Amino acid sequence: xxxxxxxxxxxxxxxxxxELGAEDDVSTAPGVRHFLPLxxxxxxxxGFERYQVRPGIWIDSNECLEALQAQLGEIPAIAIRFRSFSxxxxxxxxxxxxxxxxxxxxxxxxxxxxxxxxxxxxxCGFNAxxxxxxxxxxxxxxxxxxTNLSYQGSIYSPRTxxxxxx
Length: 166
Description:
The chain is an alpha/beta fold. It has one domain (3-164): Rossmann fold (3-Layer(aba) Sandwich). It has helices at residues 38-44, 66-69, 89-99, 118-123, 137-144, 161-164; strands spanning 3-6, 9-12, 15-17, 33-37, 56-60, 77-82, 106-111, 128-129. It has an eight-stranded mixed beta sheet with strand order 2-1-8-7-6-5-4-3. Strand 5 (56-60), helix 2 (66-69) and strand 6 form a beta-alpha-beta unit.
């Protein structure tokens, strides 16, 4: 079973990211969270009683967030898929979900990510990180330890050290 970084530790991942057009292949296995594409989630939202774990959604890093704004209270988890490790729009999307929309559920980064990005992902509001194959979760986790102090504000610590002086 694959592993991810979640809430400050490495855990086994019991979730499946369902691609667009493959929603008929979704099983209702116990304990498995499915991440459905945004449009599929919105269309099938009333039928989620058959799932033991309510599905989350996944969006590409550049997708418009207005479509899910009215449903945010019903979404337990959102995965933002990064197409490229050099694409920064997923960071902005995460910060918008946390700050402007007030989303407080699981926010997962997935796709083409490298271990070096873990501190920035955490600062933007992600609490679950899935790295691309070949990247070391232990290295990424070690980068999260001791990175709470920064001269730049973040989702979790909006006050900078300079502002603590006054």
